User: What shape does this take?
Amino acid sequence: MGLAAPAFAADLPRPLGDEDFISFDPAKAEIGQLLFYDKILSGNRNISCGTCHHHDLGSTDRLSLGIGEGGVGLGPERTAGSGDSLVRKRVPRNAPGLWNLGAKDVRVMFHDGRLEVSDIYGNGFDSPAEEWLPQGLDSMLSAQALFPLTAQFEMAGNRRENDISSALDERIDMAWPLLTARVAGIDEYADMFITAFDHIDAAEDITIVDLGNAIGAFIGTEFRNYDSPLDQYLQGDTSALTEAQHRGMTLFFGEAGCSGCHAGPLLSDQGFHALGLPPFGPGRTRKFEDIARDVGRMGKSDDLDDAYRFRTPMLRNVALTAPYGHNGAYPTLEAMVRHHLDPVGSRDAWSLEVATLTNAPWLEPIDAIVRADAREMARQAAAIEISLPPRTDDEIADLVAFLNALTGETAADRPLGRPDTVPSGLTVD
Assistant: This one.
């Protein structure tokens, strides 16, 4: 049975359309698909972008904190290596979903927003590479694609154990030409780049900018998706939502206050907020820190007011991207909703057993160390800035039903998908 439009219709976001997204070249996206799943871009040739952002796992790895280079397998079944490849550290933050990152209105990327459009360094972006990020990257997605390649525990490998990690000891931009040479040295890749890029006439013309632009084109087109029941409702189909989903939508955009942060067509204000998620793991520490913690946005801005704030995620296909939070603290949407409603109580009741972590006994002391630091725990608790009115169990169930109404009907049917093979000949996860 169709449901009438709610009284708060003026507060609902407008529908998304193709005009809201960057237009990418399909030929470049096809190269990007192969690079995305090709382990040749990792220092030890043992992990790809797709390992932690896999099609079969909703563009994530379904772990609270991932296991990067040195690990074996996918998702919750991934192991933490053995022998010389024993993983020394979990990836400090949860692998976010990639849905709709090619939207024109996306202003910041990463949980702490450390990549954003800016002219400060003359290359179009304010990024961890500062002035060493090359010019010519055609989107934030293209720029973002370059940074996991240089991260020790994600793809680069431990210091001085391969040519990539050794180059990074000199400067971040020293590794990118080496990775480019690996790709350009494969005839199939070289031919594809020559065909897709007007300025490339030979393999030696390929640069890291071209690799970034190809991967960005793939992510920007492959994970574009806005045909959920909510999207259908916004386009005028009042029968698209179930009664529970409609009640949840009314709460979400009304008295529950969710849309205070999850606003606009992308369902995110792209701001930064301190929700007081239970801390654990190694944290994304700064160079001068010797404690395992994650100060969030402050690590980028150096503004004390930003301590423990993290970016508001976009929500389409959120039901496909568990666990939730910048560190994947909560395994279900219901648990995450309940934390928003009672962050202090939820935080106090949380235990490490709730997290989805690869079994690695040698990492467990690090997982728990921040929780034994009473002063740090108190600092994080004092920074909590969310305060929402309580909701009944039935209302929480309706909110969860609405969040499930954000799953696209074609989310599992992507234009290119996962390739069976890649030009390097390396295995595809």
